[in-house]
């Protein structure tokens, strides 16, 4: 029994090549937000495939609680299966990357990994926070969207900011382990407000406390501090740093990381497939 996992709607085109495949359609972003984050409407090809998939898929899942609510009208039996984490990849000690700046008690590192793009990175909040914390080192690991290349270049010229560039998934764990505090610089928009960032649990799996802007999915999570302004962010970084150095920190986040492991976070999808008798040969 072939299970065709579709993350991007047009990728379902190979479905006719298989005899009666089970189709799992995982919605990761709010398609209606294209106009806000990309400056254009939903591409016709994406919208057409999305509508067919929502109607045809055996199971439709959403990676964020807000996404599940958004698409429940189209698919009442949509399953909420939150983004998870490969705990071993982030918890197993790795060698410190050679291109990371040194960390010390006097110069802690606040690190971010992910794309630098207008819709998912608040450049003003970042720059203003950096200016308030000259003794901190701020590291950004990830690709730069060409549309914000000038903004990224300005950040790179700041004396306590290091842009590492894109790294492979296998390398990211080593960088996260080298952070003293993880930082999520998301602006609030229709996409981020409904998302559950994967990096949230990746930070925690590595034993790293983090600070986030007030995304609904991040509020109330153990080991995550919430901040909206540069002053709040500066204070939260210090609080997270102090908490992360406590011997009790690991125990305080263990339940959260366990729940977020892929074997647990994907269980709602397995349950939905099993309820439809679609796990033959599992």
CATH architecture of the largest domain: 3-Layer(aba) Sandwich
Strand line-up in the sheet with most strands: 7-6-5-8-9-10
CATH fold topology of the largest domain: Rossmann fold
Q: Distance between termini?
A: 9 Å
Query: What is the number of domains?
Result: 2
Overall helicity: 25-40%
Mean pLDDT: 91
The CATH superfamily of the largest domain is identified as Glycogen Phosphorylase B
Shape: globular
Class by alpha and beta content:
alpha/beta
Q: Element order, helices and strands?
A: EEHHEHEHEHEHEHEHEEHHHH
Number of helices: 12
Reading off the top of the CATH hierarchy, the class of the largest domain is best stated as: Alpha Beta
Counting DSSP E segments of at least 2 residues, the number of strands comes to 10
Beta-strand percent range:
5-15%
Cα-based radius of gyration, to the nearest Å: 20 Å
Low-pLDDT runs of 5+ residues are: none
Major sheet, described briefly? 6 strands, parallel
């Amino acid at each position: 029994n072939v299970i065709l996992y579709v993350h991007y709607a047009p990728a379902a085109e190979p479905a006719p090549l298989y005899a009666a495949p089970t189709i799992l359609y995982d919605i990761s972003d709010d398609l209606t937000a294209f106009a806000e984050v990309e400056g254009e409407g939903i591409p016709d090809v994406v919208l057409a495939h999305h509508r067919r998939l929502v109607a045809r898929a055996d199971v439709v899942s959403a990676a964020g609680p807000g996404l599940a609510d958004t698409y429940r009208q189209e698919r009442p039996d949509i399953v909420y299966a939150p983004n998870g984490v490969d705990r071993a990849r982030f918890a197993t000690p790795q060698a410190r990357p050679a291109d990371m700046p040194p960390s010390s008690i006097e110069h802690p590192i606040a690190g971010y990994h992910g794309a630098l793009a207008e819709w998912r990175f608040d450049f003003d909040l970042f720059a203003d926070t950096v200016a308030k914390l000259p003794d901190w080192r701020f590291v950004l690991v990830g690709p730069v969207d060409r549309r914000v290349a000038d903004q990224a270049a300005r950040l790179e010229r700041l004396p306590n900011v290091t842009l590492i560039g894109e790294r492979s998934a296998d390398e990211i764990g080593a960088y996260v382990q080298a952070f003293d505090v993880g930082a999520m610089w998301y602006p609030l928009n229709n996409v981020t407000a409904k998302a559950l960032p994967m990096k949230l649990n990746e930070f925690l799996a590595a034993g790293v406390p983090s600070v986030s802007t007030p995304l609904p999915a991040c509020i109330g999570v153990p080991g995550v501090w919430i901040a909206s302004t540069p002053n709040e962010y500066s204070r939260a970084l210090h609080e997270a740093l102090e908490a992360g150095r406590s011997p009790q920190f690991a125990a305080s986040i263990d339940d959260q990381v366990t729940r977020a492991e892929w074997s647990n976070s994907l269980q709602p999808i397995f349950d939905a497939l099993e309820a439809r008798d679609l796990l033959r040969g599992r």
